[in-house]
Amino acid sequence: MSLPQQEQKYQESYSSTDFVLPFSALHRDMLALVGGKAANLGELTNAKLPVPPGFCVTTNAYEQIAVEVGLQSVLARYVAPLAGKIAMLSGWRICAQAARNCLLAATIPPEIADAISEAYGVWALENLSL
Fold first, then answer.
1. Is 23 in contact with 45 (CB distance < 8 Å)?
2. Is 107 helix (H, G, I), strand (E, B) or coil?
3. Model confidence pLDDT, tens digit, residues 20-75
4. Can you tell me the distance from the alpha carbon of 126 to that of 21, in angstroms, rounded to the nearest whole number?
5. Which of 6, 18, 79, 94 satisfies CB 3.0 to 4.6 Å to 14 for a cystine?
6. Threshold 0.85, pTM exceeds
């Protein structure tokens, strides 16, 4: 099975409301959902190697926030004039700064904040001795 097919298979196992997943649920076939670093942490965790317990905020959370703040329109405003002009670093820097400002101004939706808070609470209960 090719990597895109594997990713699709595992992506279908999770819903678009999965904003947070524990390392133990992650593996290398989930790159699109969790990114390379988190997928590798999942592989190491599941191989019973000494990885500190934790969780990953998924790309589903990022995508929802990006849509809600209109990141695509911000990027479109800057990218179209720069297309094919790799040498125009100042233009790309302005584009990157605009995207950064857009995301920094975002308010995390309650359902994402709740998922992160809940995952942190579970992690803290399991891993901190108070």
1. yes
2. coil
3. 999 999 999 999 999 999 999 999 999 999 999 899 999 999 999 999 999 999 88
4. 15
5. 18
6. no
Closest CA to 22 of 64, 61, 53: 53
Cα-based distances in Å from 114 to 2, 45, 96, 109, 121: 35, 25, 29, 9, 10
Amino acid at 102: C
Q: Locate tokens 């995207």: which residue?
A: 99
Mean pLDDT of the chain: 83
Spell 80-105 as b/e; 16+ CB within 10 A means b.
eeeeeeeeeeeeeeebeeebeebeee
* Phi, then psi, of 22 in degrees rounded to 5: -70, 155
